[in-house]
Amino acid sequence: MNKFDYVIVGGGLAGASAIQGIREHDSRGSILLIGEEMHPPYNRPPLSKALWFGKSKVEDIFIHPQRYYEEHGVTLALGARVSTLDSGEKSVTFGNGSVYRFGKLLLATGTRPRRIAIPGAEIDGINYFRTLDDYLGMQGDTQVNKSALIIGGGFIGSELAAALNINLEVTMIFPSATLCRRVFPEALGLEVQRHFQDRGIRVIPSDTAASISKKGSTFRTETVSGKSLESDLVIIGIGVEPCIELARDAGLEVGNGIVVNEFLESSHPDIYAAGDNAFSPYRALGKSMRIEHWDNALVQGRWAGGNMAGAHEAYTYQPYFFSDLFELGYEATGEVDTSLEVFADWQKENQTGVIYYLRDGRVRGVMMCNLWGKLDMARELIRKGAQMTPESLRGAIR
Questions:
Q1: What beta strand segments (E) does 119-208 contain?
Q2: Is 277 part of any domain?
Q3: 317 is a domain residue
Q4: 398 band by pLDDT with thresholds 50, 70 and 90
Q5: In a 10 Å sphere around its CB, with 0-12 CB exposed, 13-18 middle and 19+ buried, how is residue 383 labelled?
Q6: What rounded mean pLDDT belongs to the chain?
Q7: Cα dist. 289→113, 268, 276, 282, 294 in Å?
Q8: Residue-number span of the structural domain to which 202 is assigned
Q9: Residue 321: inside a domain, yes or no?
Q10: Exposed/middle/buried for 286, CB within 10 Å: 0-12, 13-18, 19+?
Q11: Arithmetic mean of pLDDT, 184-206
Q12: pTM confidence score
């Protein structure tokens, strides 16, 4: 039985970032990083953005070169799946039966695409877009096909629609009335939809797929409203769910993610969680949240690694997220949710300005549209938690 001082389960950004955190406090402890994909850790945002627009190449998205792991004394186990976590014995078992013990463990297992529960949703060739292999396969498909149907109108669906529009006739279908309804106020969502339609993307809101079939190389998607849509490709992007099975089966506290305290420790003192799967305290908001964004995985993974190596520092960082959808580029931080009170301070209507998300008159989230370099101001408004009115917020961030 092999033993490592630190075992990291998850070969994504949070897991890779944990290496740096560990090495900042422990230069010699042995590290094992386990990833289910055959690729070493890479950044996911370019998969639906920069790679399609030629702003980045596949070789550019890897978080570290191979020599980094060698220089930092990291053993990589790629293409490996952990089948069992024994929190009492402090060990993990691979699918092939190999057992590894640990001193400290980080669960950075991330998320998986949510499946759609309709007939035909698992037909061969349907793409639940998530991984580098998904991108590589779809990139080849776009060279020989002419049309794509995207089921889902959130972040991933919108980004892929913008990307695939370069080469394909794209149709989008989603159940909400507007794109990205959870974060965009209705007027902004409608404006973004108009940009998509102006680029030739067919947008079908307030509808959803009822069944999918395939004849030859052509997919046929029947919708709840009675539409019949033919396409060469079908991509499903209806959100993700946290990978918590290892933690749950090991008896750790789970809910909407693996529950951790401010030090990113789970209910077992030697097991930590970070990244998309961690349900962690968000100090500035006074609540726990699970955050599915690149910036949080980057910083939280490093923070967890440091705490595993003895730093014992509370996670106080306020992460942000970002995207570009044709004419709209934005950065946002905090609780960005249109179920809250929403006030938009536009310099140019639905193009340039700031959207504030408030509860009981206190700013909980901020989205800056086509405004850059303002994140610290937004974070400070959230941290202060002062009572605000639309008049006092007007011009607060310019």
A1: 147-151, 169-173, 202-204
A2: yes
A3: no
A4: confident
A5: middle
A6: 96
A7: 19, 19, 10, 6, 15
A8: 115-236
A9: no
A10: exposed
A11: 96
A12: 0.95
